[in-house]
Amino acid sequence: MKLKIKILLLAILPMLLVTILIAFLSTYQIHSLAEQEIKTFEINLVASKREELKNYVDLAHTSIKPVLEDTSLTKQQVESKVRKTLNSLIYDTDGYFFIYDQKGINIVHPISPELVGQNLYNIQDLNGNYLIRGLITQAQSGGGYHRYLWNKPSGIGVQDKMSYAILVGPWQWMMGTGLYLDDIETEVAHIRDQVKLNVRQTFIKTLFIVLVAIVVITLIGLAINLHETRLADKRLQQLALKFVRFQVNERRRFARDLHDGINQLLVAVKYKLESATNKIKRNELLATNDLEGCTDVLNDTIREIRRISHDLRPSLLDDLGLERAILNLLDQFEERTNIHVIAEIDLEAGQVPEDIEITLYRLIHEALTNIERHSQATRVQLIMWMERKRLKFTLSDNGIGFSPKSIESSPSGIGLKNMQERVELIGGHFTIRSKENEGTTIRTVFLIEE
Questions:
Q1: b/e code 132-171 from CB counts within 10 Å (16+ = b)
Q2: pLDDT at 255
Q3: Segment holding 198, helix H or strand E
Q4: Residue 79 to residues 30, 71, 254, Cα–Cα distance (Å)
Q5: Angle at CA of residue 284, ends 281 and 287, nearest 5°
Q6: Among residues 152, 203, 207, 336, which one has the fewest Cβ atoms lying within 10 Å of its Cβ?
Q7: What tens digit of pLDDT does each residue of 215-233 get?
Q8: Has residue 56 got a pLDDT over 90?
């Protein structure tokens, strides 16, 4: 797997995990709050239904109260009129009113008229709960509620029912009405399903937003990577071009040194040897002068070869090491120019790779040459140290300085450009700061890889 893909995954996966975790926690909290709200709603709904039952009973009592208080009617006539009135007061789908006397004998039951006249005082539901007895007890306490199981008229079978009952009339009949709690459960279940649907939709929307965000981030990441890749390729091409140009310039300089230096010297030796040979053949004593001239020219050739060899790789680096070679270079510079030099070098032996050693030595040599020729400085300071696997180097002078824009096309500007290219070719960072009458400072940083 490529490094860019790993970086992209490291950026996306934590965000995805955190977002999913937040969405999950949010969904859980919403679900918990919804359940609490549903329970509160269920409690309030039951309370409102209880109050509604009480109101229904009060209305029914009001409708039959004149009959109950009519003293001119016999008990049978009252039962008949009350039965007729309550049989017509069926409400909703399963709402009706019933009346029992104190012995549990049914007087009114619009839904199951076959129960009229039957004694149901000891009847129990499937849970062993006494139905009529419990209702009579609640009515005798001034009116109250009683829960039990009873057949639902709409044909769904036995359901949980809550009834409210009071005592009415001179015979203290128990009158009541009730509602089936499965209706409340159905309503609560509907609300719960709606809440779950809303939570699910919210979760899906959140995931959709997360996926869209991931796609957008991925596309942006790919676009940035593509752009960075193109920039890196462009930089690599530029670096390769600089390296080729650098090689060409070095070879051209080396060829020029060989042609203008060693080649001319060897040609001079050749001519002097030919002249000496001809003189010896003629037995002339002047042949000795030509041979001595050959020796001088060969000495010059040896020095030129040493200079070229020194330019390719200074022997001082091998003999003394980087620190001593630089100090030797600075001593020669100070002795030759009378410019005061301050050097602070903090390096350990074998700490700097060879390519950086050569580059630094040549950089310092060229910088000192520029200072000697152009700066009119009286003081030069060189600082070199290691910091977190980075070799840092600073060379500054108190000379007349220059404007970087004014020398871009001059030979000095080309020399500075060559210095920068030398440093960048081996992965270093090169900066130069200068201002007229304020001196010049060169800074480089090299990463030392183990």
A1: bbbbbebbeeeebbbbbbbebeeeeeebbbbbbbbbbbee
A2: 60
A3: helix 181-257
A4: 55, 13, 135
A5: 85
A6: 336
A7: 787 778 777 777 777 787 7
A8: yes
